[in-house]
Amino acid sequence: MKYIAYGSNMVKEQMAWRCPDARLIGMGYLEGARLEFYLHATVEHTDSTRDRVPVAVWEISERDETNLDRYEGVAGGYYGKEIWPVTMDDGSQIEGLIYIMKIIRHSPPVAGYYKSIRDAYSELGLRSKIRTVLEPALKRSMARDREW
């Protein structure tokens, strides 16, 4: 099964620990979506096809999915599971499993969590997306926190 990671599950070491069968198959993006932080990362649909979220696409086993369900708090309703389309870097289109946050917390991410995602962006060749995707998401979460 294809699994779409946009947050801390882009970190290769974390995926190796959580999902021992997982294999990174490539990079792509979610079109018409925006990265957001509500303590943890999630993605939201937007009306603009210019909005894109870079993602890592993994091939995972059923055992890995069970591990991710536990980690993402699916049983408790923290994240839900959906199937979303991804445009891969080579232009091909695939669909994969994605976890979408269901319980919203108006709080920015803790520094270590944010840094792990920022480091994953660098490691995966997404350095230019730090400024255009990751940092704006952090700023929006900080602004929401002040308003809340």
Question: Your description of this structure?
Answer:
The chain is α+β, with helices and mostly antiparallel strands and 148 residues long. It has a single domain, classed as Gamma-glutamyl cyclotransferase-like (Hypothetical upf0131 protein ytfp, Roll), CATH 3.10.490. 35% of the residues lie in helices and 35% in strands. It contains four helices and seven strands, in the order E-H-E-E-E-E-H-E-E-H-H. It has helices at residues 12-18, 62-72, 111-123, 127-147, and strands at residues 2-5, 23-31, 33-38, 40-45, 52-59, 79-88, 93-101. It has a five-stranded antiparallel sheet, with no helix packed on it. A two-stranded antiparallel sheet has the order 3-4. Strand 3 (33-38) and strand 4 (40-45) form a beta hairpin. Helix 3 packs antiparallel against helix 4 (127-147). The radius of gyration is 14 Å and the shape is globular.
What is Rg? Answer: 14 Å
Beta percentage is 35-45%
Total number of beta strands: 7
Morphology call: globular
Number of helices: 4
Question: Which class do the helix and strand fractions yield?
Answer: alpha+beta
What is the class in the CATH system?
Answer: Alpha Beta
Give the SSE order as H and E letters. Answer: EHEEEEHEEHH
Sketch the major β-sheet.
5 strands, antiparallel
CATH topology: Hypothetical upf0131 protein ytfp
- Alpha-carbon distance between the two ends: 38 Å
Task: Just name the CATH architecture.
Answer: Roll
Strand order of the largest sheet: 1-5-2-6-7
Q: CATH H level: which superfamily?
A: Gamma-glutamyl cyclotransferase-like
Poorly predicted residue ranges = none
User: Please, what is the average pLDDT?
Assistant: 96
